[in-house]
Structure formats: structure tokens, C-alpha cells
UniProtKB/TrEMBL annotation:
Protein name in UniProt: Olfactory receptor
Species: Lates calcarifer
Compartments where located: Cell membrane
Family the UniProt entry places it in: Belongs to the G-protein coupled receptor 1 family.
Gene Ontology CC terms, in alphabetical order: plasma membrane
PANTHER family: G-PROTEIN COUPLED RECEPTOR (PTHR24242), OLFACTORY RECEPTOR (PTHR24242:SF227)
Primary localization class, coarse: membrane
Membrane topology: Multi-pass membrane protein
Top-level taxon of origin: Eukaryota
Pfam families per UniProt: 7tm_4
Transmembrane regions listed in the UniProt entry: 27-52, 61-84, 104-125, 145-166, 206-227, 239-259, 279-297
Amino acid sequence: VTARNYTRVSEFVIVGFPSLQPEYFDLVAWFFFFLYVTTVVGNLLLVVVFALEHSLQKPMYIIMVSLALSDTGFSTVALPKLIARYWWNDGSLGFHTCLFQEHMIHYFGSLNSLILLTMALDRYLAICFPLRYPMVMTNQTMTGLTLFCWVVAHIFSGISTINFAMMPFCGPNQIIHAFCDTMSLTPLVCGDSRQGFRAAFATAMFILYVPLAFIIFSYICIIISVLGMATRQGRMKTFSTCATQGCIISIYYIPRFFVYSTPFFPNLTMTPDKRIATTLFYSLFPPLINPFIYCLRTKEIKQIFRRWVVSVQCTSNDLIPK
């Protein structure tokens, strides 16, 4: 199909889970609505706490706020249309709206990978070089790194977006997925889409696994450093922090590899429903639990919440007539 003899589709339709029966649509819509509200409230609460408490304005918490904003952005790009599809059977998206969603989905995915890399770098410097850490990793340095991540992530998602903008879409327009992304748009391209998919795949693997390589390296160095600590309490505290981050990193990286690799391995097949469920799990579960894992396990934030609760209780008692 050449650029001169096809009519480009004007809109796409989000199908969601193809095997889901209509009687379950409302239940699924409520589930994703609850997931979205919980994710946004949890992450924005962290941002508010950071903004109000000057004691939290440290490099580690700058990363947490960056991750919270990224998670909120991803959920806002991905979920409202999926909810509308199951609540009001409104799954249609304009061509350029779909491309915008595809760009932002991969943008926030790339951004999260870079944020996890920054987080690993911060922990590596803090544990392996504790004396140099305060001089090397200042608030200004971390803010600069964070802004760099937010800008550079557009480059990686932009490669696939530009590819799709130039590809011919002339026939089917049903997206067998929860949102527009590379995996769902590629089968709808007229003609040979392998070259474009390979470019998108190579970009995705680079932005995912180059940071992962450094993260693994940093964790090995951290473990070696921790084993040399004198006190058992210090070792347990550090291992606890690393285990928590390791769990989130595993959820983020491992399922992505299987989803992106299935087209290259004939024996590794996934049904559309399983692929969508796996994608939604690794995309939406970390944003949901990140505020609880990274914040409620942090002593400083728990103390702030306790102080707020006590302050509210005291205010309420003062308002009660005696």
C-alpha cells in the first residue's frame, strides 16, 4: 500500500478485553475507577506532604515526588478512556488522540525507568560513599537529574510516535488492548510493519534494560557494602530498603520483557486477554502501591502523618463545647 492509494482511518476504537462478557462491563469499570482514584489520591497526597514539610525536601524525597507525579500522569493518560469504554461503551479515539496517548504511555514508561535508575544511583552513593554523598547529591543536583529525566524520556517515546505518524493505517481500526501503544497499533498497519516494530522494540529494550543493568550493578555493590557493616541492625535496615525497591523493580521490568518478546519467539504465545492483563498489571500495580511502599515504610513520613492526626484531634477537641 503506497501513500497515494489508501485512505487513512480517522479514528480507532479501544476494545479492551475481547472475551469479556457485557454483563461484567459495569464491574470492570468500577474496578478501574476505584484503582484510578486510589492511585491519584495516594500519589498526590505524597506530593502535598512534600510541598508542606520542609524537612522532607531532600534528594531521596525529590525522587519519590517525581515518581508520584509520573505515576499520576500515566494513570490519567491510560485509565479514563478504558473506564469510559466499559461504563458508556465509548471506546472511540481520534487518530491523533490515539497517537498522543501512545506517545504519553511510552513516555511515562521510559520516564519511570529513568527515575528507577536515578533512585538506584542515589542509594548507591548514599550507602557506598556515605561521606561524599552530602556533597555530591545535593537538592540542586537531584532536581537537575529529575528535570533531565523528564525531558529525555520524550526522545525514546518520540521515535515510535514519529514512526506511527508516517505509517499507513487504511483498514481495521479496532485496538485489541486497554489503550493505544506500540503492541496494539502495529497489527493495524497496512503493509510491512516489521521494520517500524523493530525500531520501537530496540528503543524499548534500550530504555528498559540499560537502566536495569546499572540498577543490578548498584545493588551488587550495595550488598557487598552492607555485608561489611559492623552492626546487624544497620545491615537489616539497609537490606529491608533494598528488598522493597527490588520488589517494585521486578514487577516493573520482568513482565515487560515477556510482553515485548512474544512476537520474536514462536513458542512463547499469549492470548490477547492474558497480554492485556499482564500489561495492566505491570503498568497499574506499581503506581498503586508505590506511595504505600516508599512512603509509609519511611519513618519521617509516618511521623508527619502521626503529627497531623494528633493536630486534627486536638483541634476537634477544642471545638467541642465544654
